[in-house]
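Quick one, tokens below. Sequence please?
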């Protein structure tokens, strides 16, 4: 049977605050285990939580950017469950009076156009700590690091509106981009500050009934999410084809075997025994708070994309690539501010800079690139002023990546300035002498044959000949007009 994939996501992003959501402990990543803790985040009896105002403001900002309805009153609840990394034995979360609901995000699917993905709700909660399981013989124990416990965690729950792996990838990229533009999270998946939990089911193509949903947790990269989709499609479709039933459960990804494995049966809201947290007051969201949050919203990805098209003359594709990452878009605009040639700069960013990024770890940004925006702008300015040609630029660019030096310095150090007529003439004479038939064809009007002589001269000059000047000089030597 042919099946259709139905996908929804639970997006968890740690908010960019200096302290935790209920206490003043730091949120610095990588600190020694259990050094950023206090009675509140350790769940000690008698300790009382106090809401971090910055965490709430960042959450409100995100809810508005995702076009959510924001209630007048938002409340916090206790979600009861036990894990070693959750010392209170409950998580402070939100059960029904969410910070935002009934929102949406528009996702650019390229040639397929824009697809709107509905947001069911957005709620603020606390992250749990981290269990560490040492590997190797004799390691029959686990360690618990509670530094992360109490870190403000925003959960964004989508409706099951995605139908393909490609749509899922576009959604993840769009959501990460939005959170980066809002500057509410650093979105470093390798550090766990952005996590996509996959909810997926299958149904016969043409059916409007949903199948049984399976949740896959603890996915640490977008590429792993995409692998999970493939693995779950294979597992669920084989199970259904054999007459079996898909169990409602939570599963984990096994990177070695490239399969998902059952973790536990899927809980329902009743299992968590939600009830209002008696230690936290309701939050009244006033019109002034909403106005202030709206006023703090930056230019968002799709709006920036349209501006690049309208104001800078870029193609929709180029504008989409450049604005997908806020840091890349900022880099590009900084380069354009130094040298106003958007199309050429866009090409270098999307090819040279992006190729470098593709070779780095997944969450690397252009901010780490050895070539700064002003250096890239300088290189394009050198090309536009005919100080160097495109062939020389292709030699200069990797040296800029390798050394971090400015292009003008590299050109000077490497002796890469274009050759003048005096230096080119002997090379042109050699090429003509070595290719008399080609020279005669050119004199006879076959101007395309100039390419062969140019290739010979370019090789001998190490690419330092200016193509336009070289073409003109060859024609002059052969007495050809035009």
């Amino acid at each position: 049977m042919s099946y259709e994939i139905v996908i929804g996501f639970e997006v968890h992003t740690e908010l960019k605050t200096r302290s935790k959501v209920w206490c003043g402990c730091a949120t610095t990543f990588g600190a020694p285990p259990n050094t950023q803790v206090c009675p509140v985040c350790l769940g000690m009896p008698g300790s009382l939580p106090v809401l971090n105002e910055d965490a709430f403001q960042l959450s409100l900002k995100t809810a508005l950017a995702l076009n959510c309805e924001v209630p007048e009153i938002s409340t916090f609840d206790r979600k009861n469950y036990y894990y070693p990394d959750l010392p209170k034995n409950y998580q402070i979360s939100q059960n029904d009076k969410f910070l935002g609901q009934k929102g949406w995000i528009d996702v650019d699917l390229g040639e397929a156009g824009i697809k709107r993905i509905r947001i069911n709700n957005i709620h603020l909660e606390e992250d749990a700590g981290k269990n560490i399981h040492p590997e190797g013989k004799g390691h029959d124990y686990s360690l618990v690091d509670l530094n992360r416990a109490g870190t403000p965690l925003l959960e964004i729950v989508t409706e099951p509106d995605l139908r393909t792996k490609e749509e899922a990838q576009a959604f993840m990229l769009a959501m990460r981009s939005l959170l980066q533009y809002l500057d509410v999270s650093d979105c470093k998946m390798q550090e766990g500050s952005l996590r996509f939990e996959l909810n997926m089911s299958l149904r016969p193509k043409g059916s409007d009934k949903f199948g049984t949903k399976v949740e896959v947790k603890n996915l640490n990269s977008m590429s792993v999410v995409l692998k999970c989709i493939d693995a779950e499609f294979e597992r669920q479709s084989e199970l259904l084809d054999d007459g079996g039933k898909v169990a409602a459960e939570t599963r984990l990804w096994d990177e070695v075997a490239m399969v998902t494995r059952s973790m536990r049966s899927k809980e329902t809201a009743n299992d968590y025994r939600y009830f209002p947290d008696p230690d936290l007051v309701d939050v009244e969201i006033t019109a002034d708070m909403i106005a202030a949050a709206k006023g703090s919203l930056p230019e968002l990805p799709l709006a920036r994309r349209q501006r690049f098209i309208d104001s800078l003359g870029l193609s929709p594709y180029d504008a989409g690539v450049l604005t997908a990452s806020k840091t890349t878009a900022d880099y590009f605009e900084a380069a354009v501010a130094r040298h106003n040639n958007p199309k050429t700069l866009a090409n270098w960013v999307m090819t040279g800079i992006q190729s470098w990024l593709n070779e780095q770890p997944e969450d690397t940004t252009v901010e780490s690139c050895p070539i700064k925006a002003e250096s890239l702008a300088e290189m394009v300015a050198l090309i536009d002023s005919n100080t160097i040609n495109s062939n020389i630029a292709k030699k200069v660019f990797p040296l800029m990546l390798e050394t971090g030096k400015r292009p003008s310095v590299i050109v000077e150090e490497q002796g890469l300035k274009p050759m003048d007529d005096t230096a080119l003439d002997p090379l042109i004479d050699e090429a003509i002498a070595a290719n008399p038939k080609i020279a005669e064809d050119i004199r006879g009007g076959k101007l395309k044959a100039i390419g062969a002589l140019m290739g010979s001269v370019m090789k001998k000059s190490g690419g330092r000949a200016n193509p336009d000047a070289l073409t003109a000089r060859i024609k002059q030597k052969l007495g050809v007009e035009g």
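The first helix runs from residue 53 to 65. Residues 299-414 form one domain.
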